[in-house]
Write a structure and sequence with these properties.
50% of the residues lie in helices and 0% in strands. The longest helix has 29 residues, at 37-65. With 105 residues, it is an all-alpha fold.
Length: 105
């Protein structure tokens, strides 16, 4: 039982190299487009968090107390702990001060 090498099926080295080159070219074209998207995603997440959570909490605070928290009240901290100047505080409006996508408060 002798097998003839010409009848064996498989890929040649040139075919494999061609596939690797094509995949490398596709990766080289796609990666630069995706690389800059992480910062845009973080900015979008921060904007969504502000629009959804913080803006709603500020509106509720304003409805209850007749104005927005001042810097002397602790700024956004007034949404989670009662400031001394808030007479009609019905909070907490935020359970905790949220962190932005970069990890800062």
């Amino acid at each position: 039982m002798r097998t003839n090498l010409k009848n064996c099926s498989g890929f040649t080295l040139i075919e494999l190299m061609l596939v690797v080159i094509i995949i490398g070219a596709l990766v080289a074209m796609v990666m630069p487009r995706l690389a800059g998207r992480t910062e845009q995603a973080k900015v979008g997440a921060a904007q969504a968090d502000i629009n959804a959570n913080i803006a709603t909490a500020l509106k509720l605070y304003e409805l209850d107390n007749g104005g927005y928290p001042a810097d002397t009240d602790g700024g956004l901290d007034a949404l989670s702990t009662k400031p001394a100047s808030a007479n009609n505080w019905k909070g907490p409006y935020l359970e905790k001060k949220p962190l932005d996508p970069w990890g800062r408060s």
